[in-house]
Amino acid sequence: xxxxxxxxxxxxxxxxxxxxxxxxxxxxxxxxxxxxxxxxxxxxxxxxxxxxxxxxxxxxxxxxxxxxxxxxxxxxxxxxxxxxxxxxxxxxxxxxxxxxxxxxxxxxxxxxxxxxxxxxxxxxxxxxxxxxxxxxxxxxxxxxxxxxxxxxxxxxxxxxxxxxxxxxxxxxxxxxxxxxxxxxxxxxxxxxxxxxxxxxxxxxxxxxxxxxxxxxxxxxxxxxxxxxxxxxxxxxxxxxxxxxxxxxxxxxxxxxxxxxxxxxxxxxxxxxxxxxxxxxxxxxxxxxxxxxxxxxxxxxxxxxxxxxxxxxxxxxxxxxxxxxxxxxxxxxxxxxxxxxxxxxxxxxxxxxxxxxxxxxxxxxxxxxxxxxxxxxxxxxxxxxxxxxxxxxxxxxxxxxxxxxxxxxxxxxxxxxx
Length: 417
Prior knowledge:
Layout: H1 24-55, E1 69-76, E2 80-82, E3 85-94, E4 97-101, E5 106-111, E6 120-121, E7 128-130, H2 133-169, H3 182-207, E8 210-211, E9 217-222, E10 229-230, E11 235-241, E12 244-251, H4 253-258, E13 271-279, E14 282-293, E15 304-311, E16 329-335, E17 339-346, E18 355-359, E19 365-369, E20 371-375, E21 379-383, E22 390-392, E23 404-409
Parallel strand pairs: 1-23
Antiparallel strand pairs: 1-22, 2-17, 3-12, 3-16, 4-11, 5-7, 5-10, 6-9, 7-8, 9-11, 12-15, 13-14, 13-16, 14-15, 17-21, 18-19, 18-22, 20-21
Helix pairs in contact: 2-3
């Protein structure tokens, strides 16, 4: 075997290659070319995109969707002239309730059947009769004294005429008053007048022995009886007139305003009212009028009071209608004079105490402030609306002012205008 040489054989070295670095100018040129290419590509892409957009068919426009309408129950306003009803309560009392007194003294010799508690009497009807004999005698004496006075006056007149003739015969034109008996004649004339007055007084006393009253009424209490001696001025009975009954009715300041009643006025325009009383499952009513007010308000309740009168409410012969007796507690409805151009609406139409919701011509909600004249459990009387306005019967709890509403008319309440 051949032995390897101790020296390793080296491969021959290649000839070195010199690489020249690109110049700065060539680099800039290369970059410019690349940017130009990129710009051309970008412009081409934009142009192509624009061409695609322009060439793309446009979609046909869709018709706008109709605006949704919410149903709303409404009533059409009908302006009317109507009075406002104000409710109150009170107790019935007679307009005339008096103590009857004896105007002359004497013994009670007769009492009428009506002279008892609850008795009914007519105007001029005798209630009690006082013994008239003493007064008849006094009347006869007065009449006799009158005749004497008249006779004495006739004598004095004759003597005065005689004295005047005698004085004329003497030829003196100026007669003496004493000679002509003028003082005696004046005294005789005065005596006649006094005697006439005495006769009138005696006759009046005689008439007063019969106790009667000039109105129809009932006896509430009696204080004398048959055979009793009564002095002049003694109370013999308590009676009241049944011709006119009164009711004292309390009102607030607002109710006084609605009725146009001024508390400081001594005269008011009478207002109609109806008194109601429930008896035996039936309700009876009486017509009356408010005729006056009490001055000022009550210091404790701050309420005003008006007085109502009801005539001929105490009927004894009306079996179909009970009498309106004193002490009865009644309900009262006072009607004001008519208010012009007011609207009567359901109670639920009121919104925020003094507003209502009205649909305009585009069926959008409009909030209208009104003057509330009356508000009851069922109805509302207001001013401030126009004839034909569509008012929501029940305004929504949340109001959307831009929403359209479709009016729904309630046939039971109103009709389409």
